[in-house]
Amino acid sequence: VAPLTNQSGTGTKVTSAASVAVRHPEPQVWAVDGTPGDSVAFGLAEVFAGKAPDLVVSGTNFGPNVAGLANHSGTVGGAIAALESGVPAIALSTGGLTAPDPVTTVNAMGPTLDFAVKLIDRLRSRARTGPLLPRGVGLNVNHPVIGADGKGRAAGVATTLQDPQTLLEPDFTDSGDGTWKVTVKVALRPAVKGGDVEAVAAGRIAVSPMNADWNPGPVDRAVASVLLAGLRP
After folding, report:
1. Calpha distance 118→122 (Å, rounded)
2. DSSP state of 153
3. Could you read off the pLDDT of 33-58 as tens digits, one per residue?
4. 202-217, pLDDT tens digit by residue?
5. Where in the chain are the domains?
6. Using the 8-state DSSP alphabet, how is residue 75 labeled?
7. Is the peptide bond prior to 183 cis by the omega test (within 30 degrees of 0)?
8. What would the CATH number be for the domain defined by 2-228?
């Protein structure tokens, strides 16, 4: 179950319209003409009605969702929608801290998905017959682009916090006709120690615990650290 069209930057938005278009082109494939949050809501209410999945995976996203980018990410928004419904969730993103290069970023999605499989296997083995993650806790995973071709192996895995900086700085220029020209530049500031920006800049996979209000407490972060201890790309 996924959005029918590109929904980058839609954050946690959900549609409030009286109807939504949904396509079902083949078995086990549903395309919702809405946001990632709409897709998760439809999936949980209809496709998985009466039997919620063990895990919702949103992404992998083209480009990073670190720092303030995560607040506006449709990929992260889809994971938040799952957490709001009590379903464990992982948001996956692939990219460095510069403007994504199409070829290397797509190539890096292979290592991203390989790591996602390892991560989920780790969660399954630790969970035994219980939930994959503590109730209400999700993971925002950012995989860097490594090597000239993007297919390189990350330097390690770090349990991180979300760096509070915004990363993007907009500028508006009056066109004189009631419209304003918008330009956006990357305004990278010194990384917070232990944050996702620091990890990705060092070529490591950043795994940031999060909950539906984006403010996990120290206990939940400690639990996630134990789950991830010793994990390698």
Report:
1. 6
2. P
3. 999 999 999 999 999 999 999 999 99
4. 999 999 999 987 667 7
5. 2-228
6. H
7. no
8. 3.40.1210.10
